[in-house]
Amino acid sequence: MGIYNNYIDGKFISSESKKTFPSINPSNEKVLGYFQESNKKDLDNAVKSAWKGYKLWNNVPAPKRGDILLNISKLLKENKERLSKILTMEMGKIISEARGDVQEAIDVFEYMAGEGRRLFGITTPSELREKFCMTTRRSLGICALITPWNFPIAIPSWKISAALICGNSVIFKPSSDTPLCAYELVKIFDEAGIPGGVVNLITGKGEEIGNEIIKNKNISAISFTGSREVGEHILKNSYTHRVGLELGGKNPIIIMDDANLDLALDGVIWGGFGTTGQRCTAASRVIIHKNIKKEFEDKLVKRTKKLRLGDGLKEGIDVGPLIAERAISKVDFYVSSGKKEGAHLLCGGKKINKKGFFYEPTIFSNVKKEMRIAQEEIFGPVISLINVKNLDEAIDICNSVEYGLSSSIYTENIKNAFKAIEKIEAGITYVNSSTIGSEVHLPFGGVKGTGNGIREGGFLGIDEFSEIKTVYIDYSGKLQKAQIDLVRIK
Ligand code: NAD
What we know:
The protein is α/β, with parallel strands linked by helices. The protein contains 14 helices and 20 strands. Strand 13, helix 9 and strand 14 (283-289) form a beta-alpha-beta unit. The longest helix is centred in the first third of the chain and has 21 residues, at 95-115. It is globular, with a radius of gyration of 24 Å. 52% of the residues are buried. The site of nicotinamide-adenine-dinucleotide (NAD) has 32 residues, from helix 7 and helix 8.
């Protein structure tokens, strides 16, 4: 167990504050290491470094930037097992899921490396003769990336890879629950040949260093993934107007009476209890056709009771711990609220009495759409079952929340599937698959309270980190006036 530094101007250095904070393994509450509690002076140093890094990096041709991103992808692959174990120890997700988290980073760096040879603009005809029209992309400058703990390698990688390929430099502020993952990621960048100053890591508390970042006038863009509450605070208080927000979800799975029930069962267990329910795309509402309610509930409870909780590094574990004690209190609060509002607790509902932040996988039935457990993001292993008469009612319930990230329908009827795709208010809809499973070459993001319209990953991922310039080239040799000089057809 050691003390880990910030990474500024290509060097690992301690904070000017001379203060550190611990990172804790949520499976056994042991300290994994101590990290820098950064302050404004550290941020000023990081900004200075990032500006120097920006001038250099923006001048590197994009395909060459891509070469370094590809190196990062390769190094991540070589270090996959080691990083996955660190990730499980620090964040708690079971080792197979941690491998998925790291694999996502490997994939996105590879994908964005290729973007270095695309970064497409458009060409289009002019309304005037001998005039050429196109768009090109420009970098933004220094991008501050503020990230959560639940995908501590994958989410920073989506943002960093896209920001870098577009020619920006980066100040990376990870969650103070997972600074070790961030540190290890940055070490890989250093090894891969990212020049000093291009990526800078500063660790510390959101309310302190996070707030300094958002107020800083030299930062051109902020990309934030996290809770809705903090996202709204950033939107209101940040100096730059260029803010990308990826916020929470209250994601539904609809199960129709024509669905393959065993397939739906797998999807609900995975969506509801995978990552201990701590995914922005977790399935926290299951909307079931009344004809199959009893059969599905019985099967679901039986399967849920068999789930094995424990340290995710151990073989055979299905569900890891919650991230921290505060998460246990939050889940407890919603379990009490569900009971008070009249939902029926089918199983779970208690913290496990041992070291670590473990909570029983919990299912409520007879949930009504207005109840808090059906409206608010719990971010824990709690599934609310809601009964409906038909698909219209199911879709109405899907759309009755403030969020709109992921969604799913299980049905064998193509008409039901297409209706759900068309009518559900969400950034993502799965058919006959759970609410989880994004791939890096497709856009990721939500509607309504889940964000502000940006998409990460895939071919739209670069929009968040580049500015479009429209270019007109007139080669007629005379002054041509758009909308005023009307071209004659002769
Ligand atoms: P959080 O909002 O508490 O923290 C996110 C980040 O913001 C952390 O780095 C934190 O230190 C920082 N922060 C906190 N206060 C700040 C402030 N005042 N100014 C600047 N930065 C500040 O979220 P979390 O608990 O880390 O993550 C869980 C949330 O993230 C859930 O709501 C989940 O749905 C959401 N999430 C969304 C997506 C998505 O893509 N839509 C993906 C993963 C997680």
